[in-house]
Design brief:
CATH architecture of the largest domain: Up-down Bundle
Largest sheet: 6 strands, mixed
CATH topology of the largest domain: Butyryl-CoA Dehydrogenase, subunit A, domain 3
Shape: globular
CATH class of the largest domain: Mainly Alpha
Strand content: 5-15%
Structural class: alpha+beta
Number of strands: 11
Bound molecules: flavin-adenine dinucleotide
Length: 686
């Protein structure tokens, strides 16, 4: 094959030069900022050492291509990496020695290696998190010293592989609804763990699919004379030598996912599995041999083990978004595209895409949020680590006092930060091409042209374009019709009124963009390209407003045409309600656009009544949702979605799909168990 990368390529050279030039021109010390983010120069040095060790390790940094790797192979590979990580941590533990300082060093090493894994192989990162965060973390927070002595050493060496079995097929966030039962048998001093139904099956459980030997099982607990609510039990799952499920355990892999293919999320069902009473994690709540229950000093303690997962999610949000932003921004600086020469003459190179206003406003605010999330992570991690340190030092009060606040804050932060991260990832993805904001340029040019013709702004000499059907409203002399948001909301029962309101917004947005564009050229003396870029966000808004007006007009006309054809009244009514909801949601999400379009909210009542209108119209459609989606008429054979099956038999279909997927070997044992897992489990203590 011809070696194309040795051909002279001025554009490739220019890409390098752009990045280098901008790096050299940075006006602050990047190194100092890295130290600030890491929490000091020493922390940076420590992290870099861990990342170097990671990069130099042939098992962890295998150089293999994930996207073309068969799933079964990836599972085996991620298991090997997990064990390699364990070896690195064991070696570090031996070196660090006993005591608080050694433990803190180990925690930092684990965090640094986990961050490297989040960049390099998120599947292994999540497996390691299940082992260290969920399994070991829960044992430490919820187990008595005797329980910790029994399971922790094996867990830390990976002679025991744990999983965290909270979620069930039919329940998770509403944990009290869990169907898994633990019933005390006072005669044998055992708990009997049962999954009484299909929907009680533990589901999504990381590491359960193929390798976990033990689970921490959340179960509704029943004592001879009382119910003890949700308690946590250590339940052995697989035989270490053979990998076979233990008696009473039905276990398997839930199958392929859209990401983290190396992680074996699985299902577990218990058929009257007996475990000693000792196996109920009893640091806070316990059960005596006669069946009497000693409740926890604070009910929030039950949530202790899930806080770490939420705190880690905040950090992961920053880690994943910062990777995406690094890639998108470097590419944005390196790549040049377009004929609109930003701030330069026509002979100058094409603009860097990072200089487009849509890139500046699309990516840089996410960069700001990313720094906010890094700072937030530092705060919540420090708070959580301090609580746990108190707990481990025997200062129960130090753990309990901030628990409720930490629980509440971490719940919200996990949600808000991960929502943001997925938005940021999407913005980065779009910024790198394929979704083509440039296409909106054609629409914007047309809209500005027509508006300018109608209103006599800009250069009168340019060629006139006859206004087409889609922009007829730009010539409508009756606009603007509404003089306040309240006036529009008062007529929100009428599709025509909503359409006019939306068109009024489109006229205003197009007008604002066109006026600003002309002013940038005529008053500020910008070139066409410069002016276009300076107004790009306004132009994209104008296109959005116009397209929404077009959609609303189409919807309204469609309903009117069906009505004229004599279509059933009930259908006309439901279509009208959908059209109203489409319009109201747009208005509610773009209230400021309506205000800018001469529809001021004279009081906050208008804004809240718009929101209430969205809620009430959406709720009015609630009884029709099955009918409205059935009308799309997708047969199950085409949809192929167990969770969206027409009959509603979602749990059975999902279970059937999961249990028959190719990852579940007929033997019930992962193909790499004998060579990889059992030697690890059966090794003598490291
Ligand atoms: C990759 C991955 C790994 C996982 N690993 C594990 C694991 O190792 N161990 C484990 O136990 N679990 C695991 N889970 C499961 C995870 O904990 C649950 O998915 C999560 O707790 C949400 O529960 P659910 O899926 O049952 O959704 P539900 O609680 O049923 O919620 C479904 C949707 O309903 C809506 N909803 C539900 N309740 C309300 C409400 N009160 N108010 C408003 N809206 C509501 C929300 O839109 C929500 O998104 C994993 C999940 C994933 C995706």
């Amino acid at each position: 094959m011809r070696k194309l990368d040795s051909l002279p390529s001025p554009l490739a050279d220019a890409a390098v030069e752009s990045v280098e030039t901008e790096r050299a021109a940075t006006e602050f010390s990047v190194e100092a900022l890295t130290h600030v983010l890491d929490g000091g120069a020493a922390a940076t040095a420590e992290r870099r050492a861990a990342w170097r060790a990671f990069a130099a390790d042939p098992v962890l940094n295998d150089g293999l291509e994930r996207f073309t790797m068969p799933l079964k192979e990836e599972r085996a590979l991620s298991t090997a990496k997990l064990f390699r990580l364990a070896d690195m941590l064991s070696a570090a533990r031996a070196e660090a020695g006993e005591g608080e300082a050694g433990e803190a060093e180990l925690v930092r090493l684990r965090r640094n290696l986990m961050r490297a894994l989040e960049v390099f192989d998120p599947s292994v990162a999540i497996r390691a998190f299940v082992q260290h965060g969920l399994w070991i973390g829960t044992l430490k927070n919820q187990g008595t010293p005797e329980q910790q002595a029994k399971w922790l050493p094996g867990a830390e060496d990976y002679r025991i592989i744990g999983c965290f079995a909270m979620t069930e097929l039919a329940h998770s966030s509403f944990l009290r609804g869990a169907e898994t039962r633990a019933e005390l048998d006072v005669d044998t001093d055992e708990f009997v763990i049962s999954s009484p139904s299909l929907t009680a099956t533990k589901w999504w459980i990381g590491q359960a699919g193929q390798i976990a030997t033990h689970a921490i099982v959340f179960a509704n607990t029943f004592l001879p004379n009382s119910a003890a609510g949700i308690q946590l039990f250590v339940v052995p799952l697989r035989d270490a030598a053979t990998g076979k499920p233990l008696p009473g355990i039905t276990i398997g892999d839930i199958g392929p996912k859209f990401g983290r293919h190396g992680n074996d999320n699985g299902f577990i069902s218990f058929d009257a599995v007996r475990v000693p009473r000792f196996n109920m994690l009893a640091r806070w709540a316990s059960v005596e041999s006669d069946g009497s229950f000693i409740p926890p000093p604070n009910p929030a303690l039950a949530y202790g083990s899930t806080i770490l997962e939420r705190v880690s999610s905040v950090g992961s949000a920053a880690d994943y978004a910062s990777q995406a932003l690094t890639i998108a921004i470097r590419f944005g600086v390196a790549r040049r595209q377009g004929s609109g020469h930003v701030g330069s003459s026509p002979s100058a190179p094409e603009p860097q895409i990072m200089d487009y206003q849509s890139h500046i406003c699309g990516l840089i605010p996410h960069l700001a949020t990313c720094y906010a999330v890094f700072c937030t992570t530092a705060r919540v991690e420090a708070g959580y680590n301090a609580m746990v340190a108190d707990l481990q030092a025997g200062n129960t009060l130090g753990f309990l006092a901030p628990l409720a606040d930490m629980h509440a804050t971490s719940c919200g932060l996990k949600t808000v930060c991960t929502w943001w991260a997925s938005d940021a990832l999407e913005a980065c993805r779009r910024s790198m091409g394929g979704t083509d904001i440039t296409r909106t340029r054609q629409t914007a040019r047309y809209l500005v042209k027509i508006y300018s013709q109608v209103h006599g702004i800009g250069h009168s000499g340019s060629r006139r374009v006859p206004p087409g059907d889609s922009v007829a409203y730009l010539l409508d002399a009756s606009l603007p019709r509404f003089d306040s948001l309240g006036a529009l909301v008062a007529e929100a029962h009428s599709l025509d009124a909503l359409l006019v309101g939306i068109q009024q917004v489109a006229v205003a947005k197009i007008g604002a963009a066109a006026t600003r564009l002309h002013s940038a050229m005529i008053v500020d003396g910008m070139s066409k390209g410069e002016a276009w870029n300076a107004c790009l966000m306004d132009l994209v808004d104008a296109v959005t407003a116009h397209c929404t007006a077009y959609m609303m007009e189409s919807f309204t006309a469609f309903v009117a045409a069906r009505e004229a054809e004599g279509v059933d009244d009930a259908l006309i009514q439901v279509l009208t309600t959908l059209a109203r909801l489409f319009a109201l949601r747009y208005a509610s999400e773009h209230t400021t656009w309506f205000i800018e379009a001469n529809m001021p909210a004279k009081s906050s009542d208008a804004i809240s009544s718009l929101r209430r209108a969205v809620e009430s119209v959406a709720s009015s459609l609630r009884p029709s949702v099955i009918g409205l989606t059935d009308a799309f008429d997708y047969p199950d054979e085409l949809l192929r979605a167990p969770l969206g099956v027409k009959s509603g038999d979602v749990y059975r279909e999902y279970y059937r799909a999961a249990s028959t997927n190719a990852l579940n070997e007929p033997s019930g044992v992962a193909p790499y168990w004998r060579t990889l897992v059992s030697p690890r489990l059966l090794q003598s203590k490291l």
